[in-house]
Predict the 3D structure of the following.
Amino acid sequence: MSRRYDDVRRVIALASLVFSAGVGAQAPATSPLQPVCADGATPKLQEAEYPVVLRAGTAWNRHEYSAEERTRILFHADAIRQHFTPPPSLGQVPVIAESWIPAWGGAPSLHSAVSAKLVLVMRPNGHVRTSIWQMAPFSLPLATAVMDAVAAADKAGDFEGIPRAGEARGDDTLVVQLRSVTAAPGSDELPLMRARLARYVADEPARITKAGGIYYPDGADYSNVENKGEIIALVGSNGKAVMSGTQVSRIEWRDFINTMRGAVESTVYQPARSGGCAVPSLFVHNFDFSVRR
């Protein structure tokens, strides 16, 4: 199983603009995270309290987890849950138009403030070698609280007794997913907390009007390296990606990160529409790089 995902360590830092221009912040009128409305128009806002749950991810890179592997991941998620303390607040997070985003490696998610995928690289002795965000929640307090819970569970030795896969001797890479649910949690989900979450209801989703250019990295091409990737772009009401809130949600080789992000940054979108307003939203970009022969 490939574990070359060094660049996901920076995803929280990429969200700096999101938090500085989020709900309650003094964002300028021209902020791409603010609605742009015709006279008298108002975006459709939906706000309610939702359960936030932990569940097993469904894949890591090209490896799709078996039912047995997902059960082991859920044991790790439960250990994290037992040490988790909900933050007093989710902090400043943007209100954006959201739908059930079908990002790779997990169940669809509705609220980016709490939606995330946490990668645990476990040592053979049952302790954490590293924990990194494959996709970070927009809420920094929640991200911090989850990482604190991982550290506490590891220190307490709560991962040690979880059975390993077969005769595996090396590190084990596991993905724990966080997401909001609109009904009761499923049988394969662990309740974590409840949170009041808001989103714009889109009349029209964002769409691409001019795709950004894509190139195959020379070094990867020379080495016959192929890659499947995914980026969750935060598309502003101005029709451009807000790169500080855009996350690489799947990457097998870091050589491809610059070309993927460059393509998103140069893409022009028609922004999502809600109640006669252009509003920020999420857009999933999928990439499939095959070697030129």
Summary: Residues 1-28 have pLDDT under 50 and may be disordered. The helical segments are 11-14, 16-20, 67-82, 140-155, 218-222, 257-265.
